[in-house]
Write a structure and sequence with these properties.
The structure holds two protein chains of two kinds. Chain A is an all-alpha fold. Chain A has a single domain, classed as Arp2/3 complex 21 kDa subunit ARPC3 (Orthogonal Bundle), CATH 1.10.1760. Chain A is 73% helix and 2% strand. In chain A, a hairpin with a 4-residue loop joins strand 1 and strand 2. The longest helix of chain A is centred in the C-terminal third of the chain and has 36 residues. Chain B contains three helices and one strand; from the N terminus they run H-E-H-H. Chain B is mainly α. Chain B has a domain of 36 residues. The chains are: A mainly alpha, B mainly alpha. At the A-B interface, helix 2, strand 1, strand 2, helix 4 and helix 7 of A face helix 1, strand 1, helix 2 and helix 3 of B.
Chain lengths: 224, 90
């Protein structure tokens, strides 16, 4: 989902940066506030960030001879809420832009928006809906993580299609093309991410300490 | 056990896609850049990465370092939680 350095026209790059910035700032504030009020939340935030770090480094093979990586932001959104994920994703994307030439500084805003804002909020929304529908926890987590992952790549497709509309078929023509690139590759990876997220949540639930650290606090928030 | 199953699941598309032959996997990011070149052949990226992996610091090495850093933090925090539970009781 990394749009490569320089691959968004200046106007688009600025606009996406402006769109992502408030989420990153709000996320950073939320992390700071939580850490002051309840230092135990630092464990959960650290775990969510570390999970994103690991998963977004896993270049996994997929269908049609292409590879891509999961994002891990859906699990984080479930564990610590979608807010902090914007700043955590931005840190990971900055690391990859500077040290891996994956993504870039000019596209950092657009990439943060897809991975750190849309993905986590979609995951959180799906999680809340599934919870309200009283689906089993494993189904809630699976759908949230998998659909959050797909939403990130759908957003990237839209961002590129907006910047590069097809000369004859316009935005939709381009969107179909970019979705063909990203979504087909991503479906198996989104399923893998969903399964792994379920495994992590179930492992965490077995730990009695987890309840007091604010992990899975999103669950409590929905229950209330 | 579950983790082993997950690794199999994650690796399955590779076996299916290449049918036993070695195929170079292309990142979907690179494919998107190719699609941009098709749609807008005149577009020239107006910024270049400040630094690209190469030589001793290969992409694989840095990806591995990224995953290792994350795994280290996860392991540390998991151990911390476990130790805390033992000290204070559930």
């Amino acid at each position: 989902m990394h749009i490569m350095e320089g691959f968004l026209p200046l106007g688009h790059a600025v606009a996406w940066t402006a769109a992502a910035a408030p989420f990153v700032v709000a996320g950073a504030r939320q992390v700071g506030k939580q850490a002051r009020e309840n230092p135990e939340t630092k464990i959960g935030t650290g775990m969510a960030g570390a999970f994103v770090f690991v998963l977004s480094a896993l270049k996994l093979p997929s269908v049609a001879g292409s590879c891509s990586h999961p994002t891990g932001t859906g699990l984080g959104a479930i564990l610590v809420g979608p807010g902090p994920m914007a700043v955590l994703s931005c840190i990971v994307l900055l690391f990859q832009a500077l040290l891996l030439a994956h993504g870039g500084l000019t596209t950092l805003g657009a990439n943060t928006f897809s991975m750190g804002v849309v993905g986590p909020w979609v995951a959180f929304g799906v999680f809340c809906l599934c919870r309200r529908a009283r689906l089993p926890l494993a189904v809630q987590v699976f759908l949230a993580a998998a659909l959050g992952d797909l939403a990130t790549y759908l957003t990237t497709s839209c961002q590129l299609a907006l910047a590069f509309p097809d000369p004859t078929h316009g935005f939709l023509g381009s969107l179909a093309k970019f979705m063909g690139v990203f979504m087909v590759t991503q479906v198996p990876l989104a399923i893998a991410e969903g399964v792994l997220s379920v495994m992590v949540v179930q492992a965490l639930r077995r730990n009695p300490e987890v309840a007091s650290t604010g992990l899975l606090q999103a669950r409590a928030g929905v229950d209330a | 056990m579950g983790l082993a199953a997950w690794i199999l699941l994650a690796a399955a598309p590779a076996a299916w896609a290449d049918g036993g032959e070695a195929v170079e996997l292309k990142g979907s990011d690179d494919r998107a850049a190719e699609a941009v070149a098709e749609i807008a052949p005149g577009y020239r990226p107006w910024a270049q990465p400040l630094w690209e992996p190469g030589g001793m610091f290969s992409e694989e090495l840095i990806f591995t370092l990224q995953a290792a850093t994350g795994a280290l933090v996860l392991g540390y925090l998991a151990g911390f939680l476990r130790g805390k539970t033992r000290r204070e009781g559930p």
